[in-house]
């Protein structure tokens, strides 16, 4: 770092990130933002932040600070999110400089590090994590992952850095549970770059490994306890399942994830056609597509491991990608969402840039500069869709016209704008696609009531009342609406 050229690199990274996300400041509240921030009374008082979400306390502490100083002005929430994103780009850049030094790379190190960090900052698939305010969870988790790995690399020279590495790990675990992969990434780096023999390592360091593993597992269990999933853990707590009563079969869900991983990989290389909802039908292990996906990932894993001595960055990058993606795309039903790639994308960038574009020459530089500028523009444009719920869901409608959630959400966005006639066909379509959903009938009732059709609204509410829901607040809304409609009908008869 004696060469001050790194200061120019950081300035360029900053300017690229601002150019890509300057359009995000007009973004409004979306989806879980309302439950976690706008309607969350716990953020009004500092003493209530911990009881609301102990397992993600540090992130919600920043939301409390945002609310304390700027109430619900979304500009400043987006400002803080972008600040975290830029900081993460800087940390990723510095991590790559240290990693190359530790790996014995003596030639120019800034070139590859800058390209990876630039692509990380402006990649369009990162938009959801940065612009969707509540996904500050992903931003802060990755920040602590980078801090943990950086301090471990610094500890190779001075053991005193082991303490901040441990503190970063603990802080990350109280930001998002995905932080648990950070030590695994560090272990992967040891085996790939230090070429440690696994058998000898386990034999010589058995006591230290067992002690470290015990402490790490204890920390993870402690976080899970605070997160509220310690006793009676079930797999129906995802937003997808809770809201629409469609928890999938776990075995089929797990099999389908091999296809989902290929979609995530495609988004890393071709981040166009982005959307909120991806149509990925469940398939079992007997499906030809699932079998092909499994064979593809096995071949990739074997290739990476066999090439680890000749191409260590390729092996480490793919391992980084797999470990970072695993918590959100294996067995727990969570859906396919782009923000899951925020911490995983750096692995693909490391694998590709260091393997194919590490040499500093005019051809590599020209090609990647074009890609960086193209991604910057695509991210700038993508942020406009996040400025309005109707825009983001209508954009999704182009790709999934027969998707229940997409139609339901387009209708709800129009309903919130009191554009009842425009909302009506989408709400009816949603019920046609999934007739046993309480929320869809309730929204259609609100739409009909807004159009003056009180009898039609009552019929929809009665239909909703017959259906089961796991959410008591939804049942309360239906009962309250029925009471109000009955009162309005009696007044009209008199």
Describe this structure in words.
This protein is mainly α and 494 residues long. The protein has 2 domains: 5-195 and 234-385, no CATH class; 390-493, Tetratricopeptide repeat domain (Serine Threonine Protein Phosphatase 5, Tetratricopeptide repeat, Alpha Horseshoe). The protein is built from 24 helices and no strands. The protein has helices at 5-21, 32-38, 49-52, 57-70, 74-102, 110-122, 127-131, 136-154, 162-173, 182-193, 198-204, 206-227, 239-244, 250-269, 288-306, 312-325, 345-356, 362-385, 389-397, 404-416, 420-433, 438-450, 454-466, 472-493. It is elongated and about 90 Å long. The chain starts with a helix and ends with a helix. Mean pLDDT is 86; it is low at 227-245.
Q: Strand-residue fraction?
A: under 5%
Mean pLDDT: 86
Annotation, overall tally of beta strands: 0
Task: Provide the low-confidence segments as ranges.
Answer: 227-245
Distance from first to last alpha carbon: 83 Å
Backbone structural class: mainly alpha
| H-E order | HHHHHHHHHHHHHHHHHHHHHHHH
Oligomer classification: single chain
Task: Please give the share of residues in helix.
Answer: 55-70%
Count, helices: 24
Overall form: elongated
Instruction: List the domain count as a whole number.
Output: 2
Radius of gyration: 25 Å
């Amino acid at each position: 770092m004696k060469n001050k050229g790194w200061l120019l690199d950081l300035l360029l990274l900053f300017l690229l990130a601002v150019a890509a996300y300057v359009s995000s400041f007009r973004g409004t509240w979306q989806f879980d933002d309302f439950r976690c921030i706008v309607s969350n009374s716990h953020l009004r008082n500092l003493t209530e932040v911990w009881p609301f979400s102990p397992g993600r306390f540090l992130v919600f502490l920043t939301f409390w600070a945002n609310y304390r100083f700027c109430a619900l002005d979304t500009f400043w929430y987006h400002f803080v999110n972008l600040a975290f994103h830029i900081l993460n780009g800087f940390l990723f850049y510095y991590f790559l400089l240290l990693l190359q030094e530790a790996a014995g790379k003596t030639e120019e190190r800034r070139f590859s590090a800058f390209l990876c960090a630039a692509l990380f900052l402006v990649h369009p698939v990162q938009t959801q994590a940065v612009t969707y305010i509540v996904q500050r969870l992903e931003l802060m988790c990755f920040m602590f992952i980078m801090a943990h790995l950086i301090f471990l690399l610094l500890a190779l020279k001075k053991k005193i850095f082991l303490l901040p590495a441990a503190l970063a790990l603990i802080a990350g675990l109280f930001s998002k549970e995905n932080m648990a992969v950070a030590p695994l990434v560090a272990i992967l780096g040891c085996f790939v770059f230090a070429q440690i023999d696994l058998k000898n390592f386990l034999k010589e360091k058995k006591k230290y490994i067992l002690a470290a593993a015990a402490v790490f597992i204890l920390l993870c269990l402690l976080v899970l306890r605070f997160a509220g999933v310690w006793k009676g853990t079930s797999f129906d707590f995802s937003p997808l399942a809770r809201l629409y009563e469609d928890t999938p079969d776990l075995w089929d869900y797990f099999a389908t994830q091999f296809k989902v991983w290929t979609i995530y990989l495609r988004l890393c290389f071709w981040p166009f056609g982005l959307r909120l909802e991806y149509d990925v039908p469940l398939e079992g292990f007997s499906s030809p597509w699932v079998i092909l996906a499994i064979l593809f990932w096995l071949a990739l894993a074997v290739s990476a491991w066999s090439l680890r001595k000749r191409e260590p960055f390729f092996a480490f990058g793919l391992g980084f990608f797999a470990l970072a993606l695993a918590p959100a795309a294996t067995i727990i039903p969570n859906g396919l969402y782009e923000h899951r790639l925020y911490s995983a994308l750096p692995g693909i960038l490391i694998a590709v840039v260091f393997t194919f574009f590490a040499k500093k020459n005019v051809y590599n530089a020209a090609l990647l500069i074009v890609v960086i500028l193209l991604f910057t523009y695509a991210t700038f444009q993508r942020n406009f869709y996040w400025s309005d719920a109707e825009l983001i869901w209508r954009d999704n409608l182009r790709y999934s016209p027969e998707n229940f959630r997409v139609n339901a959400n387009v209708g709800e966005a129009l309903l919130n704008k009191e554009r009842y006639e425009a909302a009506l066909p989408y709400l009816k379509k949603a019920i046609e696609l999934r007739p046993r959903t309480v929320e869809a009938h309730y929204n259609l009732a609100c739409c009909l009531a807004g159009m003056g059709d009180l009898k039609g609204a009552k019929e929809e509410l009665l239909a909703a009342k017959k259906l089961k829901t796991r959410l008591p607040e939804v049942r309360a809304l239906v009962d309250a609406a029925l009471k109000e409609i009955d009162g309005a009908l009696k007044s009209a008869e008199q």
